[in-house]
From TrEMBL:
Lineage, top ranks: Eukaryota, Viridiplantae, Streptophyta, Embryophyta, Tracheophyta
Entry keywords, A to Z: Hydrolase, Protease, Serine protease, Signal
Pfam families assigned: fn3_6, Inhibitor_I9, Peptidase_S8
PANTHER family assigned to the protein according to its UniProt record, in alphabetical order: PROPROTEIN CONVERTASE SUBTILISIN/KEXIN
The Peptidase S8/S53 domain, residue ranges: 134-546
Cross-referenced PROSITE patterns: SUBTILASE (PS51892), SUBTILASE_SER (PS00138)
GO annotation terms (biological process): proteolysis
This protein's name: Subtilisin-like protein protease SBT4.3 isoform X1
Inhibitor I9 domain residues: 60-112
GO molecular function: serine-type endopeptidase activity
């Protein structure tokens, strides 16, 4: 065996210690015990200062007799820890060991499913730094990639950047190129993944949204026809397949994160998260201040599907690629079942519908259905009603449309009073939506459930009805009878908004390769388009600083910068103990004794939780770095609101050079919040050319 390099020795030593812990725990135990959960051990971790992260199990498994077989994954770069199959007794024993920060069960995350770039101002004609853009590497933690897609052609590309240290892991049916420069895949517990190839479509879609090349003449079966492209067509892509078609395990995600940092990616895009209830507060899950948390909002193109019922036209939401149906009989699902009560029949479940009553007709469902029941029963189409916000369109396996409750009640009334009710469903069309951008109902909301001092989400980006590359091997609806295959698909989700921010960050980095992740994040937030709160009742808890404006972010004027020590001091101020911080940071760090508070992290937004029954006053310390005109003077502008008093000291900042820094204090005070649980305004630093805008949010615990 050859000699090991220093980093190899370190990694070998870490893994040896991890196996020793497992062996110690397993001694004297019945090794054929069964475990019901998959647990993590986290030890010393480190917050990466080289990559910008943009972000969201239950087994009956026979345990083998060796620690090596029990160890699922070992993490050595982004943090020190491992994943292993453990019984509850074993995980409790490890949790008591010295130096162990935490042991917790593995979770399963879900994949969050191009007019959009023009909508945010990043047209094909904007200025670009092509050579520097070609040196930017975006890593994706996702379901893999379809490298043969035209969006990933490497025609005209040179070799990968010298900083790239990754690999192209392949089983022979997958080939990287000078566009898709790297790929890895992770099997994970319960997953039979043998290639980085995307068979689910999600990873291909997100990668092409951020960095796909321009492809003319794309559409989804004729819908949304045009050119598809990403924000940075010259950037490189590295795919880390941590997910199957829809689910992703903690062990794979962290292994991918670990590898991506070592491989040298600049931007790490993770379109992952938990499913959450719609419009519920505090559902935002990616809340760490060193990541960008992204909401999803609409663009000025809306895809609608009309249904002609009798002699009236009803406009609903779906992506119907099948073309218009003929005018055929229309039946209520509650009249199409002889085996279920009306409540279950109204859902259009396959086991409830009678084929003899449904075949050749359009069926009306009283809630949104996947469409498998109608399809298997021989229906020619389905009209569904929903009491939820009907604010985005979905793909179904047969002609379909979703209408609101009022329209649905009108349709039901027509069916009941008509002897031979008839209907037809038209092919979807794209219409102009002048209300955009509006944060969509499925997008998670704040306030931050972990820290009341950090506003989340940070920003919003297009995430509704986005067309991008897709895997031709992927099912569009995951219904076996739906045989459609496509190279480009229209999807909605925060998974679609996340790569928009990844692409925007890459666009900014191409102009400023030396900027820190925090500086890029600040540029994106402080230059964002302000969102109209009247269209979004959750205000900043829905959209953060606003909608991304990539072109303006290249020249923000000032940035709020931060580094690893700042984040660690934030943890100090949050109340973490010295030992906990040492384990998290992976380095010896002594909390500074300052008069500051947790709200003093140099963040591009300000958030304050107050008691509804008391007056309040709080100081927030901030500093800005001049990245604009060398000699410049910025004045603070704050829109004062009734009951809220905000002061900035000093209110004028004069700079003499680039990279010069100045500090200031924002004092937020006010009377009792009696009429609202949330109020907000903004601080804008302006030199007459740049407007550096930071939202200020004050809320009560009943928000």
């Amino acid at each position: 065996m050859g000699a090991l390099q220093n980093n190899q020795l370190d990694q070998f030593s870490i893994q040896h210690r991890q196996l020793s812990i497992l062996q110690n725990v397993l001694q004297g135990r019945n090794h054929q015990a069964w475990t019901h959960e998959f647990f993590w051990l986290t030890g010393p971790q480190s917050i990466s200062e080289t990559s910008l992260l943009i972000v969201s199990l239950y087994f009956n498994f026979p345990l083998s007799s060796s620690a090596e077989d029990r160890l699922v994954a070992s993490y050595k770069r982004s943090f020190n820890g491992f994943a292993a199959f453990l019984t509850e007794e074993e995980q409790q024993k490890i949790a008591r060991m010295e130096g162990v920060l935490s042991v917790f069960p593995s979770k399963t995350y879900q994949l969050h499913s191009t007019r959009s770039w023009d909508f945010v101002g990043l047209s094909e004609l904007v200025k670009r730094e092509i050579e520097k853009e070609s040196d930017v590497i975006i890593g994706f933690l996702d379901s893999g990639i379809w490298p043969e897609s035209e969006s990933f052609s490497d025609e005209g590309f040179g070799p990968p950047p010298r900083k790239w240290k990754g690999i192209c892991q392949t089983d022979g049916n997958f080939t990287c190129n000078n566009k898709v420069i790297g790929a890895r895949y992770y099997k994970g517990p319960g997953k039979d993944i043998t290639s980085a190839r995307d068979t689910g479509g999600h990873g291909t879609h997100t990668a092409s949204t951020a960095a796909g090349r321009r492809v003319k003449g794309t559409s989804f079966f004729g819908i949304a026809h045009g050119s598809a492209r990403g924000a940075v067509p010259s950037a490189r892509i590295a795919m880390y397949k941590v997910c199957g078609e829809m689910r992703c395990s903690d062990s794979s995600i962290l292994a991918g994160f670990d590898d991506a940092i070592a491989d040298g990616v600049d931007i790490l895009s993770a379109s992952l998260g938990f499913m959450s209830a719609k419009n519920y507060s505090s559902t935002v899950s990616s809340v760490a201040p060193w990541v960008i948390s992204v909401a999803a909002s609409s663009i000025d193109r809306q895809i609608v599907t009309k249904a002609i019922v009798g002699d009236k036209v009803f406009r609903g939401r779906s992506i119907n690629s099948f073309g218009s149906t003929k005018s055929v009989p229309l039946i209520l699902s509650t009249n199409a079942s002889i085996s279920c009560d009306s409540a279950n029949a109204g859902t259009c479940l396959a086991e409830c519908l009678d084929k003899k009553l449904v075949k050749g007709k359009i069926i009306f469902c009283e809630e949104i259905s996947s469409g498998d029941g109608a399809l298997l029963s021989g229906a020619l189409g389905q009209i569904m009603q929903t009491e939820e916000a009907n604010d985005y369109s979905r793909i179904f396996p047969l002609p379909s449309t979703v209408v609101d409750m009022a329209q649905g009640d009108n349709i039901k009334s027509y069916i009941k009073r008509t002897k031979n009710p008839q209907a037809k469903i038209l092919k979807s069309v794209a219409l102009r939506d002048r209300t955009a951008p509006v944060v969509v109902s499925f997008s998670s909301r704040g306030p931050n459930p972990i820290s009341s001092n950090i506003l989340k989400p940070d920003i919003t980006a297009p995430g509704v009805e986005i067309i991008a590359a897709y895997s031709p091997a992927a099912s569009l609806t995951r219904i076996k009878q739906d045989k459609r295959s496509t190279k480009y698909a229209i999807l909605s989700g925060t998974s679609m908004s996340c790569p928009h921010v990844s692409g925007a960050a890459a666009y900014v980095k191409a102009f400023h390769p030396d900027w820190s992740p925090a500086a890029i994040k600040s540029a994106l937030m402080t230059t964002a388009f302000p969102i109209n709160p009247r269209k979004n009742v959750d205000m900043e808890f829905a959209y953060g600083a606003g909608q991304i404006n990539p072109v303006k972010a290249v020249n923000p004027g000032l940035v709020y910068d931060a580094n690893k020590d700042d984040y660690i001091q934030f943890l100090c101020n949050e109340g973490y103990t010295a030992e906990e911080i040492r384990l998290i940071s992976g380095a010896k760090f002594k909390c500074r004794k300052t008069n500051g508070t947790v709200g003093d992290l140099n963040y591009p937004s300000i958030q304050l939780l107050v008691d509804k029954n008391r007056t309040f006053s709080r100081n927030f310390s901030r500093s800005v770095t001049n990245v604009g005109t060398p000699v410049s003077t910025y004045k603070a502008v704050v829109k004062q609101l009734p009951g809220l008093k905000i002061a900035v000291s000093p209110s004028v900042l004069s700079f003499k050079s680039v990279n010069e820094k100045h500090s200031f204090v924002v004092t937020v005070g006010g009377e009792v919040l009696s009429n609202a649980n949330v109020t907000s305004t903004s601080l804008v630093w302006s030199d007459g050319v740049h407007s550096v805008r930071s939202p200020i949010v004050v809320y009560t615990d009943t928000a």
